[in-house]
Amino acid sequence: MTTATTTDWQQRHARDLMASYAPPLRLLVRGEGAWVWDEDGTQYLDFLGGIAVNSLGHAHPVVVEAAGRQASLMVHVSNYFATPSQLELAERLKRITGAGEAGRVYFGNSGAEANEAAFKLARRTGRPRILALKNAFHGRTMGALALTGKPALQEPFLPMVPGVEHLDSTVEALAEAMRDDVAALIVEPIKGETGVVPLPEGYLRAARELTERHGALLIVDEIQTGVGRTGRWFDFQHEGIVPDAVTIAKGIAGGVPLSAMVTFGAASDLLQRGDHGSTFGGNPFATAVANAVLEEIERADLMGNADRRGRQIRAAVEGLGSPVVTEVRGRGLLIGIGTVQDAAPAVAAAALEAGLIVNAINPTSIRIAPPLIIGDEEVAAFTDRFRTALAAV
Ligand SMILES: *Cc1c(COP(=O)(O)O)cnc(C)c1O
């Protein structure tokens, strides 16, 4: 199972791919459900799900069918034309976000692009200040990076796009910063890239109240938390608030690149003709697959499954009683497992050796974001393999 010597594919990756990623862990060749296989035929339980992307797992018949059907009709036409699948998805997103009649949808291809659109939406208020949170992640393009509250990611690329201030994730810090010159506040309801760290209890409701009072937009980045992963379509729906915009990507089309910004109410009129665009954004292929994925999430009650399986997994991890585990965080199937100092990378490496894919997002956090389709078999296999991994460190 171990790759003791540097193999041909590792050398090729190191030689031919931009050095911006760490060396890849395995060469994967196929998947089915929550399982993937490497080139040696070794099987792994995929509890990272392509970083919360593969909502229906690998090779799901619904994705295969929708992709094949749409590819045989047309893959792309440009935004000079409308397509049935794009119109259907826009309507569906307005419904599931709760934006309803007054909502509008902008399509991009990645999370960063959805947040770039949100950045431009905020600029269109004419107000100078944008508030974001320290340690939140909003993407790697220059606008999204300016929103991202991680100095280490920004420093090599200074100067940043101006106008963004990063606050502590407390209601007091927000109340202090909030005035009538604020265009928008952007938040992740659960900070995924920071180790699955939820906002403090009541923060989103207070943020809604403060932004509304000062006429600022509340933008919720649901790129990682959205599309059923936390047990509802969107995490903000647990709080009963209505934002001005929500950004969506990762899980929306089961692995096909697609993102969206959905606006609510008056925010829907901020972007006007010529203000923004994307060649690939919302093409018929990606939107057809997204429609099929969202329909399946609803039909098979995968939000209910995410909630149930999430509880099961959190209880199972706590039940292992390992001294390596310090806490279990998150909602539904976005779970952060806190570890004692510096143990997370060793746990993830031991898990991989035991045939389990999890992610050490930082030295003290393991992230799991499995497909929403997992059942008893996968939960049992995870528990077994994770126990083995914890015992190995
Ligand atoms: C992944 C992520 C992004 C960036 O998405 P990309 O598709 O990598 O550009 C932005 N915000 C959040 C919360 C994310 O998890």
From TrEMBL:
<comment type="similarity">
    <text>Belongs to the class-III pyridoxal-phosphate-dependent aminotransferase family. ArgD subfamily.</text>
</comment>
<dbReference type="InterPro" id="IPR015424">
    <property type="entry name" value="PyrdxlP-dep_Trfase"/>
</dbReference>
<feature type="binding site">
    <location>
        <begin position="111"/>
        <end position="112"/>
    </location>
    <ligand>
        <name>pyridoxal 5'-phosphate</name>
    </ligand>
</feature>
<keyword id="KW-0963">Cytoplasm</keyword>
<dbReference type="InterPro" id="IPR004636">
    <property type="entry name" value="AcOrn/SuccOrn_fam"/>
</dbReference>
<feature type="binding site">
    <location>
        <position position="140"/>
    </location>
    <ligand>
        <name>N(2)-acetyl-L-ornithine</name>
    </ligand>
</feature>
<keyword id="KW-0808">Transferase</keyword>
<dbReference type="Pfam" id="PF00202">
    <property type="entry name" value="Aminotran_3"/>
</dbReference>
<feature type="modified residue" description="N6-(pyridoxal phosphate)lysine">
    <location>
        <position position="250"/>
    </location>
</feature>
<comment type="pathway">
    <text>Amino-acid biosynthesis; L-arginine biosynthesis; N(2)-acetyl-L-ornithine from L-glutamate: step 4/4.</text>
</comment>
<feature type="binding site">
    <location>
        <position position="279"/>
    </location>
    <ligand>
        <name>pyridoxal 5'-phosphate</name>
    </ligand>
</feature>
<dbReference type="InterPro" id="IPR015421">
    <property type="entry name" value="PyrdxlP-dep_Trfase_major"/>
</dbReference>
<dbReference type="InterPro" id="IPR050103">
    <property type="entry name" value="Class-III_PLP-dep_AT"/>
</dbReference>
<keyword id="KW-0028">Amino-acid biosynthesis</keyword>
<dbReference type="InterPro" id="IPR005814">
    <property type="entry name" value="Aminotrans_3"/>
</dbReference>
<feature type="binding site">
    <location>
        <begin position="221"/>
        <end position="224"/>
    </location>
    <ligand>
        <name>pyridoxal 5'-phosphate</name>
    </ligand>
</feature>
<dbReference type="InterPro" id="IPR015422">
    <property type="entry name" value="PyrdxlP-dep_Trfase_small"/>
</dbReference>
<feature type="binding site">
    <location>
        <position position="137"/>
    </location>
    <ligand>
        <name>pyridoxal 5'-phosphate</name>
    </ligand>
</feature>
<protein>
    <recommendedName>
        <fullName>Acetylornithine aminotransferase</fullName>
        <ecNumber>2.6.1.11</ecNumber>
    </recommendedName>
</protein>
<keyword id="KW-0032">Aminotransferase</keyword>
<comment type="subunit">
    <text>Homodimer.</text>
</comment>
<keyword id="KW-0663">Pyridoxal phosphate</keyword>
<feature type="binding site">
    <location>
        <position position="278"/>
    </location>
    <ligand>
        <name>N(2)-acetyl-L-ornithine</name>
    </ligand>
</feature>
<keyword id="KW-0055">Arginine biosynthesis</keyword>
<dbReference type="InterPro" id="IPR049704">
    <property type="entry name" value="Aminotrans_3_PPA_site"/>
</dbReference>
